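User: Predict the full complex structure for these chains.
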Amino acid sequence: MTVALPPADGVDLRVEDLTKRFGRGAREFTAVDRVSFHLGTGETLGLVGESGSGKSTTVRCLMGLERPQAGTLTYNGLNLRRLTYKAERIFRSQVQMVFQDPYSSLDPRMTIGQIVAEPLRVHTDLDAAQRRRRVGEMLERVGMEAAHMKRFPRSFSGGQRQRIAIARALVVQPRVLVCDEPVSALDVSVQAQVLNLIKDMQQELSLSVLFIAHDLAVVRYLCDRLVILEKGRAVEQGPRDQVYGDPRHPYTQSLLEAVPRADPVAERERRLRRRERTITTQEAEVAA
Amino acid sequence: MTLTSTPPEAEAPEIGADTPRTPARRAYEWLTPAGLGGGISRGLRGLFGRHTGALDRSAVVVSILLVAIAIIGPFVAPYDPYLAVPADALLPPGSQHWMGTDDAGRDVLSRLLVGAGTTLLAAVAVVLISTIVGVLVACVAVLSPRGVDATIMRICDIFMALPAMVLALGIAAALGPSLGSVVLAMVIAMWPGTTRLVRGILRVTMNAAYVESARVNGIGRFPTLVRHVLPNSLDSVYVQASMEISGAVVLMAGLAYLGVGAPPPSADWGAMVAQGREYITTAWWVATFPGLAITVAAIAFGLLGDVIRVRLDPSLRRKR
Amino acid sequence: MTAPVLEITDLTVSVPEVTRTDGGRGGLTLVEGVSLSLSRGERVALVGESGSGKSMTAKAVMRLDPTVDLSGSIRVVGQEVIGVPERAVRRLRGSAVSMVFQDPMTALNPVLTIGDQVAEPLRLRGVSRREARSRAIDMLDRLGVPSAARRIDAFPYEFSGGMRQRVVMAAALIGGPDVLIADEPTTALDVRVQEQVLDLLEEQSRELGLAVLLITHDLAIVAGFAHRVVVMRHGRIVEDRPVDDVFAAPQHPYTRGLLASIPSVDDDPTARLRTVDDVMQEDAALAASVILEEVAP
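Assistant: Here is the predicted structure of the three-chain assembly.
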């Protein structure tokens, strides 16, 4: 049933001193401030930060949806800021993306089959029958049925739509999968399914994954390395165990602290300590 | 259309979105011909309340009926609508002439039936052409660099600043009285409204993730527009267009009333009302029947637009 | 024992006629036989996935959705809500029971100042402008909105998500309700802001004796917050127990599945995440016997 796919080859994605500003004059603000990181073959890199941290903007600059003011973006030697037509074709067929909102990332007027086949139409010269076969295979691989090809996105739940989005991204056998908060819009119980799927696909296809999230608990399952972003700056970077086990930057520490734990007694204790801390801070302010 | 001084970054209001219904906006909505038709239909909906099924069905039925009359009218008319029979002038409605005769002795009913084709065909043609032109210009605007986009929008603003009636009047008068010049004049008056509306919708649709997904696959801006953005944006256009038909019918009637339009003995309804105005007190039927026909057509098409809007409503779009 | 401030008995929410995704038409029951009660100062979490009926239950309490049919009984501070005229329910809204919604970005009217919106529940009850304004400032202050007196005339767009949620809460609490229903109030927020909002809710509940019904799909956030956890699935309640019990020894396999699927920073990162289905399949035998219990009268 499953066609043996060749493992993805070398990946060398480099982001150096990426800077992106929005607005003009007094309203200008820097969304991404000299952010640098690197993604290699078979690696999974997590880009973690709260809203406004610049993680989405960074990725959008990478994919060409925004134009940065400064910085170097290269993929396997190709300069992403100055892509020739041919280079763009290569880049786009090898680097695919899954978006955050499952309810708006699928064209509501196209059938699932058409949606998943679109990258094939753009990047390959397979004929309609071949495309249909591939789409069917891909859908089965992500846990859907080939028969779903004829249906429209509105018949499916959020979790299912993300699976479809993943199928669309992987149908052209890319080397890199960029995931922009793919589970943030899903119920916690459904998140587990989609995360497992991404992990499975990553292993099966030897993908390199760039995973953006705001939840540190979520990235732990997927990522070898992490970049923590705060207000546009990369404040900490390192291997997973180091970041979780020995966070250096206070922001990382506070993010870790804030992750809710499924232990009522411990949580109540934490809350109590937080309250006491606030009261003492307030008292200190009053005294000052 | 009212004078609007819009700041450069303003968008056209999304149909169905929560545009703040300030008193000014409400007044504007009411004053346009489509607004009046829509307003009446909303009023009727209020009356019918929960039983709007009947209202919707009658709107569809009447619209179809009108189209049917437009097509078969000429074949069913009992008398020649153009032949003047001075001896039979201004006869009241009776067994021979169900709607009476006008000042030249022509049967009003026959003229009504034949005029249906002219009036409705002209109205539909106007709306069709102006919508196509409007959508095309909106697409160009949305794909162009900011400067060109802004220029196009300013041109639209200029056109929309003049009341449609005045604009159409001027153009039609300049081109000489004929059905063709009226149609052209109305198209020129109406396309900017469509462009503003469509451009606003296109811009919103283009922010959707599925459009970004297409772009991220390297699909160019124009193919993305055609394949993804347009199909998802045209719902409002269909609704707007069907409501505009009622507006066009009324506008054309108004122009004919003012003496611009197809010359007599043309049987279009507006011209008929214009002819009959001198006899309103003496021979009421000459102007009243065509007037009623215009009203019924305006309401029917306005309601039809309402029906289409309700059916196209993405009530299936789920939110968590 | 004081009477419960919110008492839902055998609530059924159904839609009379709808076109289903399989093309058929017919009635649909969204919530069935739900019974639940809240006492003064009690914090209860109503947990379930999308489509479990938790939001519908919450909206039914305030009769917010006129298109659904309600049957059963809902008593708010002793007053029946089902089957009574609209104006009776209106009197309760804002004063006895209040609600906070999920998305703070759209919950506030962008063209009105936050002061107007927070004061609105009071103004609707005839409180004078001046007094309403001062109470609004007070409320915003209590909820931790900095420089409340100065920012009372600011517009929503000037505030971040977390701040807007506080403004929304201020508007909900200013009428002094006995019950606050929070429908996924933290879902759209970052983890740190989430924490702040929950802390705030808990504080207000403690200080004002406010009963809180927190609706969420995320079991993790309720651990430190709720006294009791009620789990819903497919329109029915499958578990209703004190929070410590639910986390330590969940009874229903569905609850176990929900708990297991929470990703944690303490688990082994190389292991697979357990999903609800995984857990439920493992407990097939137990599930059968529990479902039998549910179905039997």
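Chain C touches chain B at residues 50, 102, 111, 184, 187 (CB under 8 Å).
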